[in-house]
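Our consortium's second objective concerns turning raw sequence data into structural hypotheses that experimental partners can test. To show how far this objective has progressed, the report includes one record in full. It was chosen at random from the queue rather than selected for favorable results. The single chain below, 323 residues long, was entered without modification.
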Amino acid sequence: MVSIGIDGEAVARAARLLGEGGLVAIPTETVYGLAADATNGQAVARIFEAKGRPRFNPLICHVSSVAMAERFVDIDPLSRRLIDAFWPGPLTLVLPLKENAPVHPLVTAGLSTLALRMPRGVAAEVIAMLDRPLAAPSANTSGRISATTAQAVADDLGSKVDLILDGGPCPVGLESTIVKVDGEIISLLRPGGLAAEEIEALTGLTLKRSDQRAAIEAPGMLASHYAPRAAMRLDVRELNPGEALLAFGPSRAKGAENASHHLNLSEKSDLREAAANLFDYMKRLDATGAAIIAVEPIPHEGLGEAINDRLSRAAAPRGQTIR
């Protein structure tokens, strides 16, 4: 495993390794992705092996252009409106897979749909050079905290990765929002780095929230996910002695002075700042060895919906298999 920057030489090296069936950790605006050529079954299998990921959990495919997306999926008019407004960016669309599209079945988990996103920056450059989509879930052990820095990838996956492109901290810090369009109905399969309200404002449609008992249609729908080794206690207004505290805003929970360790997602109650800090701060508090991480209440509007989604999955009983 080698960690390098993101200049032209690094992009070319990453594309070459991916073309040879390698695994490359790539920074995106959301989190670092563990990327492999989505058309190469053996390369995709390495993703599952490295992450210890359940085979029934599908992967997001990343493309560098709408034209590339159209080689693999059918795009309906409403999905195209969303693409025009929010690509490149933190929005994933679940779309019908074209017949004979060369995406390997491991990517789709046997579904007739494909989750697609167009990232910004160096990830798009690598994909364009490779001229094939990349399957790229978050670059971390399955179910654990997503990586938002190259160092976090190295600490977790180490030699399981052939190359890490170091693009610095991810600016969004949460995985993409995932939606699926069916006629005039837009289902929110996973809240993420694009607030649901922005989609609703563009389309004039209220997003349908996914049934928690629904079958898995997209990544990030496992009940227990994004989990630290410590237990998580949410919406805490009174701290127990010895707990680590994940705080939010200027006011503290009762007994905060007894916290073993303390990090604040955003002193200013800024949800965008909190989203960017979430996984890094969870990982840092987990590394202290605390048995319990107590989390102060976080509003549910805007990006708070996605933050609370990740926290609830991190706190879910371990071993649950579906949402």
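The partners drew two points from this record. The first strand starts at residue 3 and ends at 4. Residues 3-175 form a domain with the DHBP synthase fold (CATH 3.90.870.10). Both points have been shared with the crystallography group to help prioritize constructs.
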